[in-house]
Design a protein that fits this description.
With about 160 residues, the protein is mostly helical. The protein is built from 3 helices and no strands. Keywords: Membrane, Transmembrane, Transmembrane helix.
């Protein structure tokens, strides 16, 4: 029971790290005063880094799953020896439970890896959309400023002519 709580806490901690990293990186990039091109470049760099990290996290999850499977196999072997002493019926039950545990562990690690990849892809799409929106807003604002500068330039030229 205690071991299960530790595994759950580790999973929650990893989820927190993933979400915190994504939110922190996106916030930092969106709040930085940069041009649209620089922002898109930075966002794409961060998305690539996130994809790389999600791949690393997937590997970590797979390694942990392998470690859990290995530990389960070791425990199964120990239990099997005790069970052989107690009776052949117990041996069958232990093997069945170990196989179920291995399958459940593999399925859980596969699901976590897939969910991590899906979230990274979702964030990639969100970040790209945000970058496009930011670039559009920046262009619109630049056009407004340019129009105002042209108007003021015309006014100054008119005033200069009258002097």
């Amino acid at each position: 029971m205690s071991n299960n709580n530790n595994n759950n806490s580790s999973g929650n901690f990893m989820t927190g790290i993933i979400v915190g990293s994504i939110v922190g990186a996106a916030t930092a990039l969106l709040m930085a005063p940069k041009s649209g091109k620089e922002l898109r470049s930075d966002l794409n760099d961060q998305v690539e880094a996130l994809k790389e990290k999600s791949g690393e996290w997937k590997e970590t999850v797979m390694e942990k799953g392998s470690e859990l499977t290995s530990t389960a196999m070791e425990k199964t072997s120990q239990l099997q020896q005790v069970a052989m002493e107690k009776g052949s019926n117990v041996v069958g039950v232990v093997k069945e439970k170990a196989d179920q545990f291995r399958d459940t562990t593999k399925e859980a690690s596969d699901n976590l890896a897939e969910a991590t990849k899906e979230k990274a892809d979702e964030w990639n799409e969100t970040v790209n959309q945000a970058a496009d929106n930011m670039a559009d807003m920046t262009k619109d604002r630049a056009d407004q400023v340019q129009s105002q500068v042209e108007t003021k330039t015309d006014e100054v030229a008119e005033n200069a002519k009258t002097l």
